[in-house]
Amino acid sequence: MSVIQTNYTSKISNHFEKTYTKKTEAVYSSKTSSKESVVEEYIRKHPNDAAHVNKQVQAGKKVWAKNGVEDVSRDDMSMEEYQKFFHALLDTIPYDSTRVCDVNFLKISDEGWEQMKKDPEYEAWILGYFVEDRAVKNPFFGWGGNTGSVCFEHFGASIEEHHGEGFSKSSVKGEKHEKKEESWWDKRRKRTKELMMEQQVKAIEEARAKREETLQEYRNHQLKSQQKLRSFLTGKPERQFVNQPEEKQLAAAAYENTAGLFQSLIRNSDFKR
User: Fold this and answer.
1) Distance from first CA to last CA of the chain, Å, rounded?
2) pTM for the full predicted model
3) 153 near 164, Cβ under 8 Å?
4) Is the pLDDT of residue 254 over 60?
């Protein structure tokens, strides 16, 4: 059951169904006969729009029917009650699934509320306008960076007074970003941050190169020491040391020297048992 049916159909509609249903029809018919609806006035002035406006009015009346409030009299409501009644009706109109990220703001003038309350055709037209508007798909939904739109709708005491505007949330973020880029201080901070990052990367690379150089010197020193020890123990002349920067070559040479050293010790009679 909808919000309207819960809050108003059960309380207001039941009450008016017994007492005011026939009276409501008489009141509405007397209003349309004694005073022209702003909808009829608009159609008379803009006959080319008649088909579209009538379609919107019928869509609004379907919202009444869906919520069972066609015969509810607005005359017996206070303005505060009527506004709550209308907003509850409006909340039953769904958005297209591609509009879930939209944010909407509704502004109705005091004169507009008065006209809607006494002119059911005008109320139906506004409801029908939102039925049509909320059914429109967002063609950019699902695109990267698309976060929906912000829309403002303004209504007065006639159809001519209605106007709306909207803009994409993504475009607003883009404008703010451009303004930041145009700021001299923002550019300076950005450039300073980039320079600091470059210096940090450079310092890390230099430290890494220095560490490799130190490690290489240590390996060379170890290899020389092993060769000297081997020469001293075996009595053989020391082999000319060749700087081999490759780790695998250094490791192989160190292993070869160490293995040769122990083999020589084993063969030397001084170390035999």
Assistant:
1) 105
2) 0.53
3) yes
4) no
